[in-house]
From TrEMBL, chain A:
This is Sarcosine oxidase subunit gamma. Pfam families: SoxG. InterPro entries: SoxG, TrmE/GcvT-like. It comes from the Bacteria.
UniProtKB/TrEMBL annotation, chain B:
InterPro entries: 2Fe-2S-bd_N, BFD-like_2Fe2S-bd_dom_sf, FAD/NAD-bd_sf, FAD/NAD-binding_dom, GcvT/YgfZ/DmdA, GcvT/YgfZ_C, GcvT_C, GCVT_N. Residues 617-888 form the GCVT N-terminal domain. Residues 908-993 form the Aminomethyltransferase C-terminal domain. It comes from Stappia sediminis. Gene3D superfamilies: 2Fe-2S iron-sulphur cluster binding domain, sarcosine oxidase, alpha subunit, N-terminal domain, BFD-like [2Fe-2S]-binding domain, FAD/NAD(P)-binding domain, Probable tRNA modification gtpase trme, domain 1. Residues 492-511 are annotated as: Disordered. Keywords: Oxidoreductase. The keyword Cell membrane does not apply. Belongs to the GcvT family. This is Sarcosine oxidase subunit alpha family protein. GO terms for molecular function: sarcosine oxidase activity. Residues 172-441 form the FAD/NAD(P)-binding domain.
TrEMBL record, chain C:
GO terms for molecular function: sarcosine oxidase activity. Pfam families: SoxD (PF04267). InterPro entries: SoxD, SoxD_sf. This is Sarcosine oxidase subunit delta family protein. Transmembrane segments: none annotated. NCBIfam families: soxD (TIGR01374). GO terms for biological process: tetrahydrofolate metabolic process. It comes from the Bacteria.
Length: 188, 1001, 101
């Protein structure tokens, strides 16, 4: 495991859900790059961020304060905890200069939630139809899917920690439904 | 009120916890663990409802969800009534208020009962016969009559205040039903290591084991064995136990919907709990263990309160300590009723007689009754009952060898318990699309081949007797587990004493010695369908069981006929003189029992029905008092009324401000796609009508996108950011559609192109600043970009900074004025907006909304896709042939522009429309005609697409699509309005600054 | 809710993650302008609409975003086989024979 996950709770915001067995927190801002292209581009990009880009479907790779997610056969999302999106963009773009590809800064497009605790999977299953049994959805798995009616990206960072990303305007919907589903945990 | 019919001891109720409740306003007392039905019975109450059609008094018949009569409405507060709850499923709690249904003014005196006297009018098909003619009577006479007289229960009047939850779950083995077969199956599957969900519609798991007083399993009383098995399951963390949870829908690929009732049984539910939860389960294997349902006997007056199923009598006695009566007659064709007799007798109830249809009843259960000293009459049939609101006596008859019946006299009783044998409950198997097969030996329809990964266990597929049912359940659980895991273990099946299979059963109407014209024997209690009705339907030509069902309404009760179907089928079969399998069985459909709308909706209501998308500047608009409109999922500021302003005032002021000074507009919702790669220009050249290969870096181009049929599907401005990078904008609503359209061509037609698409709609906040003072307003905030027209002309894009924030600055106009669209990273949108607004405000500018944007663009004759276009419009129709690259070899939709129907004369074309009276604002969608009062059936020439008041023109204006419109300039045509046709002049669609000098200034 | 296997993700997902995209193997003509009106209409509008096996396009719209092809039985609503874009269309007659066995 890398020393520090690319996702950390945004210390400036209070948690969205806190119960004895699940927490939902907004992640701190980070740099997100959408990479489209072939494996050659992916290999150059991986070298530039210190984490080889995953080539197996629905898998992820992690480096210190960075992660790369397989989203499609020619599509990856790179996440880096670093202040300056432009600088990161230039670094990765330069590394792929001679290879056809598309690199787009989408740092601001998504917001991320960190859902953690023994009831994290249960909470997500209120709106996500995936099977979170570890044999089916192991640690490190990442996928796009639906949360209710919102498109999301979901990554299992560890057994009990999930990261959910959605386009920013969909996030209030996701948060409202997570809060709604968590209310009964407080009662129980 | 005393509980006169409560046993002195026993049952699963908590006698130390009394529970007070009301039924029809009258106070009663029961115990914790009682259902409403058991508590009423303990208080001596059988009369609980009136029947649907004849309003006949009706009593509790069953102890399960198939209950046809004891339907109640329960409202925790006014306006929140839940109707049609089945009393045997309603758990009482302190303060429960239940109301009976279908009666007025009271249960014991009901004016609708006059229908019973008029019953000859209400025969089979009475709905069809009575309410058919004259047609004009339907709305005013028949429908109100039916609505007031009929209908089960009262719908709630207020929006549902309860919350409903949803949960998706996966398992290896889903077991539906927790009686002996289900418990055994779940145990076997769990012991094999499978992930198991076990659900049961009852409040407590265990099914028939909970009222089995005489059997032993593994040397333990059956009920104790069940408790141990449930405890073992509950300690297994791969097992989920769901009591109060009905498996109501079996769908494709083992997708099964369950409805869990979470709080209905609680006196003071925690408001944080949902009332119900919808479980959407995907199971690798399903075990259906839904048991069998005891059939009523069809004899005259079999619907009198006090007449009940024999097994229900045993359930109420053993599980709830409630006696059906103090002197009971048992009518049966099946051994299992003898178990009821024995248990009742042991509890001190006077069992007057067991009237058995069979001439020589025999077997272990019969012997037990005999040795308990209970009188048994063979070849004996009930031929009627007496009593007004409760049975007082049963009329018995002797069945002669020739089938005729002679009267035996009357037997006084306060309850009559009946058993016609058992019908395997094949509802869920049928829902799984399996075809039931008639089993002659069992005298029942049984599940045939499995269509999905499911198997039935226990009496729902014709296996009876506790030992056999347990063995069957274990085998089903083991086999289900074996199908999903190699580690399946062969479980040890415990040995059973007692609980032997009860033989016997009958179908259809019983013989009697009464006048057939004067008596009624009910088949479907809830819908008041008698044996006579079914016979009549057959005589009238309804020979298919599906037709008979719909004509008589038999089997259309809340239990879908689980109680009544086989008797109806038997009567139809005998009348048709066809064997039962040739008559067929109606299909069972989802849901198994009624499910509340809230459970289907779950959380998708109110704000959470759909995602509501808001821009980073939304709150600013709220603070400024904006009205909003919905555009796809987005909330867009519509207009910004100042205090006292009407919408018309506000829009006129906003328009004038933009034209004369400057306006600020939130354009964030526009779709944005980053098109990147060596072949980006080539790709755009193929998907837009316009040429894109030679668009310079830093330049913008307005583009039109067609579908392959040649029709306009979207438009937008495209900026070339770099040689291989384009910033494409789409309409707000069209963004997902356009991206899917482009991906389609890229992935499937031109996979050789090195170009990729990334949605950046939400990466950017977009601030439009439009008007003569636009440049002055933003200039002080911009760094690194020369804003002079010479350096940055109309339709160009530059990268730089604004307020220190990186920006893609577009110089473009959708208003006809000079203007900019400032793209900044979304999280910085609000701060940049605030800074720009400061400057806008300082020069007397204003924010404007989508309405003003629409007016301003209409003054310029700019189309809005979806308003001027409707999916059948090509560029030339809207005067945009100029945007079509004539020298291009191909683009999507190009070939279609040469289709005969596209090049033909007479197509509708975009024109401007000015009413002769400048104050008249036409309605959008209004028809345009050549004459003021055209003859009927004259086709319209076209229709108005956009219509506004224009402050720039000082009058109304409109756009319209009119046949050969460009050839009609200056013509007078007519437009229909609510006040009649008005004369209009056809003009150019460009009303304002036709030379276009303003936007390039 | 049907389960559909995405050949790119290699997993089975509920139908709601996917979008139907019409009949498969109808290639866009290389030079549409050379087609007669009848030929163009044939390409634009004419589809086989069989009762039985149909080659059709689906997109894993809420997943990896890829279009792929599938053979589905329009009678039973069962997916017989699923394959990536660019792979050859299976022999439907052979699939019918196999299904019968
Ligand atoms: Zn996929």
């Amino acid at each position: 495991m890398p020393e520090k996950s690319v996702y950390s709770a945004n210390a400036h915001l209070s948690p969205i859900v806190v119960t004895s067995n699940v927490r939902v927190e907004e992640a701190a801002p980070l740099v997100r790059l959408s990479l489209r292209g072939g494996e050659a581009a992916a290999s150059h990009a991986g070298a530039s961020i210190g984490a080889p880009l995953p080539l197996e479907p629905l898998t992820s790779t992690m480096a210190d304060k960075a992660a790369a997610f397989w989203l499609g056969p020619d599509e990856w999302q790179i996440a880096i905890q670093e202040g300056d999106a432009t600088a990161v963009f230039e670094r990765v773009e330069t590394a792929m200069a001679d290879t056809p590809h598309s690199l787009v800064d989408v740092s601001e497009r998504n917001r991320a939630l960190i859902i953690s605790g023994p009831k994290a999977a249960w909470l997500l299953n209120s709106q996500i139809f995936l099977d979170f049994d570890e044999a089916v959805f192991p640690v490190g798995m990442v996928t796009r899917t639906l949360f209710g009616k919102a498109d999301i990206m979901l990554w299992r960072q560890s057994e009990d920690i999930f990261v959910l990303e959605a386009w920013r305007s969909f996030m209030p919907y996701v948060i409202e439904l997570l809060q709604e589903a968590s209310r009964e945990l407080e009662a129980a | 009120m005393t509980q006169d019919f409560r046993t002195s001891a026993g049952g699963r109720i908590d006698r130390s916890s009394p529970v007070d409740f009301t039924f029809d306003g009258k106070a009663y007392r029961g115990f914790a663990g009682d259902t409403l039905a058991s508590a009423l019975l303990a208080n001596g109450i059988h009369l609980v409802g009136r029947s649907y059609k004849y309003h006949r008094p009706r009593g509790i018949i069953t102890a399960g969800s198939e209950e046809p009569n004891a339907l109640v409405g329960i409202a925790r507060e006014k306006g929140q009534n839940t109707p049609n709850l089945r009393a045997p499923q309603v758990e009482i709690y302190q303060g429960l208020n239940a109301e009976s249904q279908n009666r007025y003014p009271s249960l014991s005196f009901d004016v609708g009962a006059v229908n019973d006297l008029l019953s000859p009018l209400f025969v089979a098909g009475f709905y069809y016969k009575t309410f058919m003619w004259p047609r004009s009577f339907w709305q005013k006479v028949y429908e109100p009559f039916i609505r007031s007289a009929a209908g089960l229960g009262k719908a709630p009047t207020d929006p549902d205040k309860d919350r409903y939850a949803n949960h998706y779950a996966h398992c290896d083995v889903l077991v539906i039903g927790s009686g002996p077969a289900g418990l055994a199956a779940a145990t076997a599957a769990a012991q094999s290591g499978a992930r198991v969900i076990l659900c049961d519609e009852q409040s407590e798991l265990g099914g028939s084991l909970l009222h089995d007083r005489t059997s032993a399993v593994d040397g333990k009383p059956a009920v104790d064995w069940a408790a141990d098995a449930i405890r073992a399951l509950s300690e297994n963390d791969k097992v989920t136990l769901l009591p109060r949870t009905t498996g109501f829908g079996y769908y494709a690929q083992n997708f099964v919907a369950l409805a869990e009732r979470v709080t209905d049984h609680l006196a003071n539910p925690d408001p944080r709990l949902p009332r119900e939860r919808l479980w959407q389960v995907r199971a690798k294997e399903v075990v259906i263990a839904t048991g069998a349902i005891e059939r009523p006997l069809v004899f005259p007056e079999n619907d009198r309160p006090g007449v009940m199923m024999a097994e229900a009598g045993r359930i109420y006695l053993n599980r709830y300590g409630a006696m059906a009566g103090k002197r009971v007659v048992i009518a049966t064709a099946c051994d299992t009723a003898y178990r009821t007799a024995v248990d009742l007798k042991a509890a001190g109830v006077d069992v007057a007689v067991i009237a058995d249809l069979r001439p020589d009843p025999a077997g272990v259960h019969v012997d037990a009754a005999r040795s308990a000293g209970i009188r048994i009459e063979g070849a004996c049939v009930v031929t009627g009952t007496k009593g007004r609101l409760r049975v007082k006596s049963a009329r018995l008859g002797r069945i002669r060898p020739d089938g005729s019946v002679t009267a035996m006299g009357e037997e006084a009783c306060d309850s009559l318990l009946m058993s016609g044998g058992w019908t395997p409950n094949v509802s869920l198997y049928s829902q799984s699309r399996g075809k039931v097969a008639w089993d002659e030996d069992a005298g029942a329809y049984l599940p045939g081949a499995s269509v999905q990964h499911e198997r039935s266990a226990g009496s729902c597929h014709g296996v009876f007797g506790l030992q056999a049912v347990l063995e069957d359940g274990y085998a089903a659980g083991e086999n289900a587990a074996r199908a999903v895991t190699s580690a399946a273990k062969r479980p040890k099946v415990p040995a059973v004493t007692g609980g032997e299979e009860g033989a016997g059963g009958t179908l259809g109407a019983l013989p009697h010695d009464r006048d057939p014209a004067r008596v009624r024997a009910f088949i479907d209690f809830q819908n008041d369908v008698t044996a006579k009705d079914v016979k009549l339907a057959v005589r009238e030509g309804f020979h298919s069981i599906e037709h008979i069902k719909r004509y008589t309404t038999t089997g259309m009760a809340t239990d879908q006929g689980r109680l009544s179907n086989m008797n109806a089928l038997s009567v139809a079969s005998k009348t048709l003189e066809k064997p039962i399998p040739q008559v067929g069985l109606t299909t069972f459909r989802q849901p198994y029992t009624p499910v509340t709308f809230g459970t289907f909706a779950t959380t998708a209501r109110g704000e959470a029905f759909d995602p509501v998308r808001r821009t980073p500047m939304h709150d600013w608009a709220v603070e400024k008092g904006a009205e909003f409109e919905d555009v796809s999922l987005w909330k867009r500021a519509w207009y910004f009324p100042k205090p006292g302003e009407s919408m018309h005032d506000a829009v006129a002021r906003e328009c004038a401000t933009v034209r004369e000074s400057v306006g600020i507009f939130d354009a964030t919702t526009l779709g944005k796609i980053e098109v990147v790669g060596p072949d980006a220009a080539e790709f755009l050249n193929r998907v837009y009508t316009n040429p894109f290969l030679k668009l310079g870096v830093g330049r913008l181009r307005y583009g039109i996108m067609l579908n392959e049929a040649g029709f306009i599907m979207d438009d937008g401005v495209v900026g070339r950011i770099a040689e291989e990078r384009f910033h494409v904008t789409t309409t707000t609503g069209g963004a997902p559609r356009v991206l899917a359209h482009l991906e389609d061509y890229l992935q499937t037609e031109w996979p050789d192109l090195n170009v990729w698409l990334t949605s950046t709609t939400e990466q950017w906040a977009v601030i439009a600043v439009q008007g003569p003072k636009a440049r002055d307003v933003i200039a002080p905030l911009v760094e690194g970009i020369d804003l002079s027209t010479e350096s940055m002309p109309h339709m160009s894009v530059r990268e730089g900074k604004i307020c220190g924030v990186p920006t893609r600055l577009f110089r473009m106009s959708f208003t006809g004025e000079a203007g900019y669209e400032i793209n900044v990273p979304a999280s910085r949108g609000r701060e940049v907006w605030d800074a720009v607004w400061n400057n806008v405000e300082a020069v007397g500018g204003a924010p404007y909304g989508t309405e003003t944007m629409h007016v301003l663009r209409a003054e310029k004759g700019y189309i809005i896709v979806g308003q001027e276009t409707d999916g059948t419009v090509v560029p030339d129709d809207v005067g945009m042939d100029w945007a079509v690259g004539k020298k291009k070899a191909d683009f999507i939709g190009m070939r279609s522009l040469a289709r005969p129907d596209i090049v033909v004369a007479g197509r509708k074309q975009l024109v401007g429309v000015l009413t002769n009276d400048p104050k008249v604002i036409l309605e959008e969608g209004a028809q345009v005609t050549a004459e003021a009062s055209p003859a009927l059936k004259t086709p319209a020439l076209g229709y108005v697409t956009s219509s506004y008041y224009s402050s720039a023109l000082g009058r109304s204006m409109a756009l319209a699509m009119i046949a050969d419109g460009r050839g009609r300039m200056g013509d007078t045509l007519y437009v229909s309005t609510a006040e009649g046709a008005v004369a209009v002049e056809i003009v150019s669609p460009v009303f304002y600054d036709a030379e276009g000098g303003k936007q390039v200034a | 809710m049907l389960l559909i296997t995405c050949p790119y993700c290699g997993v089975e997902r509920p139908e709601i993650e996917f979008r139907y995209a019409g009949e498969a193997h109808i290639a866009r003509p290389a030079e549409p302008s050379k087609l007669t009106d009848e030929e163009w209409a044939e390409y634009l509008y004419m589809r086989t609409n069989p009762k039985g096996l149909l080659a059709e396009r689906w997109r894993h719209a809420h997943g990896c975003g890829r279009f792929f092809n599938a053979i589905r039985d329009t009678v039973s609503d069962r997916f017989v086989t699923i394959y990536k874009m660019g792979e050859a269309k299976p022999d439907l007659e052979r699939l019918v024979v196999e299904a019968a066995q």
